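Most newcomers find our protein records easier to grasp once they have seen one. There is nothing in a record beyond a sequence line and a structure line. Getting from the letters to the tokens is the skill we practise here. An example says more than a description, so a record of this kind follows:
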Amino acid sequence: MSGNDGLIWAYRVDDGGQARAVEWDSLDAPETGFCWAHLDLEAAPATRWLREKSGLSEIECSALLAEETRPRATLMRDGLVLILRGVNLNPGADPEDMVSVRMWVEADRVITVRRRRLLALEDVRERFAEGRGASNVGEFVSELADRLVERMSGVIGGLDERLDHLEEGDQSGDERETRRKLAGLRRESIALRRHLAPQRDALARLCTERLPWLGDLARLALREALDRTTRYVEDLEATRERAAVAQDELASRLSEQLNRRMYALSVVAGVFLPLSFVTGLLGINVGGIPGADTGWGFAAVSASLVLLALGEIALFRRVGWL
């Protein structure tokens, strides 16, 4: 199997969960078990196979080939269009830029398509390679949903840890950097929640639909994935609100610091304003200035200015300004 022809991998899976790799010409639904084909939408042969040889209608193909998708579970004829998202853990990528996996699911066949690599699908493939894969379509869907949720735990837990560090960190640190990090946390939590909230709704609908290939155990596993997804959505909401509160507190602290500095400058200006007036008045360089012709004039003026400053400070303390 080669990604160049659009078929990333394909397996025939028997009732015992044993998987055998197959090629394009063996993708027909098996008599027992099910067939799983994973396609790369960036390759033209994969798109052509979906439209011409997969047996899917134009509406179903369009749902799988759409440029922009959001998580959903939609019943169509005898199958299900299921679109989910997982965190982007590819090297150099932002986790909040979530990767979609589009699926066509029916009793004996699963078609998954992608535009970008998704590690959760590779986890499912590794379980087949180890001989511990799903034995039916319902187990496959529940296992994939579980792996998608499991991959999210580290990213969402990391947001909480980063926020805890910013909240409990040194208050004397770089406040501009702290504000930038808080803004980044809010953006990440908002972006993740934007995808997880509809994914929660899609899993909830999947759990309530009466699908013949979805057994009780698989349904319970899906409910567990739904519960964890709901908890992650709530955690993201809490993270966003905590980050907003931390930003408000930081802005309030910065405003308080600015007010204290402005107050100190105002007090200094209040002390020196009368002194500046006196020195300016004595420096106008006209006749009749007292003490201009005496040796003790400068000392007398300096002492008067010191006494005036001390008197102003005492007055400010009395009225509560200092």
